[in-house]
């Protein structure tokens, strides 16, 4: 081997020159914070799958009621309590319109002389469950997003002011929080709901009335951390106003944590809405949300399990997807906070 | 420590006072009154009934009386159940709720700890992913959805366990307890996994290993005991979650507990029971969180030391 090497003519080698001016050159393209986060989240399969599931559910909640041949509110009493029947799938023996009647498996569609298809079946009043489930999803999602947004705005403002101005302002604001945090969410939510007219607004207010506290604490801690750092001091020395420091220096740094927190508020809000509707404090009929649909389905579980199945399936999927996406975002936006 | 406890106790009382006040005035502002539906009463009869329940006095006087009675532990009388004292009603219904809550908590936390340990000791294997999946599902699926499906399969379809009611002794408590256990199970398993992973990478574990301790010894004697302590901190939120869960679970399984009573009273406008139960729930949660915080300071010497320095 060593002889072989010596046989190679010397001029086939070229001396490498180390150019000291190039030593500091960055060979990889520089990535912004968001590009970096996107790279990280793309590797997280669970988060990506969740994102697609969420997109699908959100799109379906708008498109679903439109593509169904039946209306969500129309009551066709002759079509009551039909099991699901889907064209195509019926040949496979699932969702074929068969259900038990007096202990026997019969085609209920034939029995009731129904010649259309109800993809998710119908409820006791003959309303199309497919439209109702997606309409309900829409309402639940609206409540959750609205509640999360309000929580975010109040929480960031409160925590930001408290942390940034510090001193006496911070003292008073934190004492208030310390008292509020002792009040159990469940109790305050139920009291507020009792007090207000039942409906979407009441639920949103009830969820947000203590929901912002978590966000405000996180934001305050972050603002405290950043406001004394050198780059903020430098900016202040150069004469930057408070507004500029907050918007240009502090907010961009804590944006990741705000997003993560909001992502975890959404499933919480979905749960509370469903919970309130389930114990009868939520939306009043004929309005439907996932919670009221589950409540309705629960009453007829023994005989019409399909009425409960679809809304609870979508509710569970929503919750799982939001939690997984939240986990993924946390790992991507703030690697230090991982677990 | 003493200073800290005093401060916390004062906050506890302020919080409770605020809740009591808010509850009272919200109840007063509610539409409808417990006797409004009884339109058969003549005005003079109505006045007698109102006088009996003290509803004819000005609101500030009612408030004062209410607060005084509250200090004595008297939550007033129910409108619905022929003057039964609310305190007695709550105490009577405490049993089933307590059994379900404690069984659910113990079951959930025990299995959760085991799952979390398996996940941490077999990191990034199928065991780890499996236990993470169970935890995510447990956190995500609301207990009432889980409970209804349990009821359908175990109760209706297979008929293994009683579908509902509180009549078959301990067997009646099995399904509701399992349904309640899902939340604690998920929380505990995720928490223990995180703690164990952190503890397992610390220096004293390496030392124990280098001194020849077996894997079992390291896992249980060294890592587990240290990972377990911080679990105390999640007991507060867990208790709150159990309470929320118990409202619906007791409703679903028709269990004569406090949660079921509460939901019923909301439907029938029984102010005094709503107020009483709300205050009871609040007091319970406030005390649990307080005890947990103090307990944590006592059992974790690291916290106690830093507290002493401050």
TrEMBL record, chain A:
<feature type="domain" description="ABC transmembrane type-1">
    <location>
        <begin position="137"/>
        <end position="326"/>
    </location>
</feature>
<dbReference type="GO" id="GO:0005886">
    <property type="term" value="C:plasma membrane"/>
</dbReference>
<protein>
    <submittedName>
        <fullName>ABC transporter permease</fullName>
    </submittedName>
</protein>
<keyword id="KW-1003">Cell membrane</keyword>
<keyword id="KW-0571">Peptide transport</keyword>
<dbReference type="GO" id="GO:0015031">
    <property type="term" value="P:protein transport"/>
</dbReference>
<keyword id="KW-0472">Membrane</keyword>
<dbReference type="Pfam" id="PF00528">
    <property type="entry name" value="BPD_transp_1"/>
</dbReference>
<dbReference type="InterPro" id="IPR050366">
    <property type="entry name" value="BP-dependent_transpt_permease"/>
</dbReference>
<feature type="transmembrane region" description="Helical">
    <location>
        <begin position="254"/>
        <end position="283"/>
    </location>
</feature>
<keyword id="KW-1133">Transmembrane helix</keyword>
<dbReference type="GO" id="GO:0055085">
    <property type="term" value="P:transmembrane transport"/>
</dbReference>
<keyword id="KW-0653">Protein transport</keyword>
<feature type="transmembrane region" description="Helical">
    <location>
        <begin position="46"/>
        <end position="67"/>
    </location>
</feature>
<feature type="transmembrane region" description="Helical">
    <location>
        <begin position="202"/>
        <end position="219"/>
    </location>
</feature>
<feature type="transmembrane region" description="Helical">
    <location>
        <begin position="139"/>
        <end position="164"/>
    </location>
</feature>
<dbReference type="GO" id="GO:0015833">
    <property type="term" value="P:peptide transport"/>
</dbReference>
<dbReference type="InterPro" id="IPR035906">
    <property type="entry name" value="MetI-like_sf"/>
</dbReference>
<feature type="transmembrane region" description="Helical">
    <location>
        <begin position="303"/>
        <end position="326"/>
    </location>
</feature>
<dbReference type="InterPro" id="IPR000515">
    <property type="entry name" value="MetI-like"/>
</dbReference>
<keyword id="KW-0812">Transmembrane</keyword>
<dbReference type="InterPro" id="IPR025966">
    <property type="entry name" value="OppC_N"/>
</dbReference>
Automatic annotation (TrEMBL), chain B:
<keyword id="KW-0472">Membrane</keyword>
<dbReference type="GO" id="GO:0055085">
    <property type="term" value="P:transmembrane transport"/>
</dbReference>
<feature type="transmembrane region" description="Helical">
    <location>
        <begin position="174"/>
        <end position="192"/>
    </location>
</feature>
<feature type="transmembrane region" description="Helical">
    <location>
        <begin position="9"/>
        <end position="27"/>
    </location>
</feature>
<protein>
    <submittedName>
        <fullName>ABC transporter permease</fullName>
    </submittedName>
</protein>
<dbReference type="GO" id="GO:0005886">
    <property type="term" value="C:plasma membrane"/>
</dbReference>
<feature type="domain" description="ABC transmembrane type-1">
    <location>
        <begin position="94"/>
        <end position="296"/>
    </location>
</feature>
<feature type="transmembrane region" description="Helical">
    <location>
        <begin position="133"/>
        <end position="154"/>
    </location>
</feature>
<keyword id="KW-0813">Transport</keyword>
<dbReference type="InterPro" id="IPR045621">
    <property type="entry name" value="BPD_transp_1_N"/>
</dbReference>
<dbReference type="InterPro" id="IPR035906">
    <property type="entry name" value="MetI-like_sf"/>
</dbReference>
<feature type="transmembrane region" description="Helical">
    <location>
        <begin position="273"/>
        <end position="296"/>
    </location>
</feature>
<keyword id="KW-1003">Cell membrane</keyword>
<feature type="transmembrane region" description="Helical">
    <location>
        <begin position="228"/>
        <end position="253"/>
    </location>
</feature>
<keyword id="KW-1133">Transmembrane helix</keyword>
<keyword id="KW-0812">Transmembrane</keyword>
<feature type="transmembrane region" description="Helical">
    <location>
        <begin position="98"/>
        <end position="121"/>
    </location>
</feature>
<dbReference type="InterPro" id="IPR000515">
    <property type="entry name" value="MetI-like"/>
</dbReference>
<dbReference type="Pfam" id="PF00528">
    <property type="entry name" value="BPD_transp_1"/>
</dbReference>
<dbReference type="Pfam" id="PF19300">
    <property type="entry name" value="BPD_transp_1_N"/>
</dbReference>
<comment type="similarity">
    <text>Belongs to the binding-protein-dependent transport system permease family.</text>
</comment>
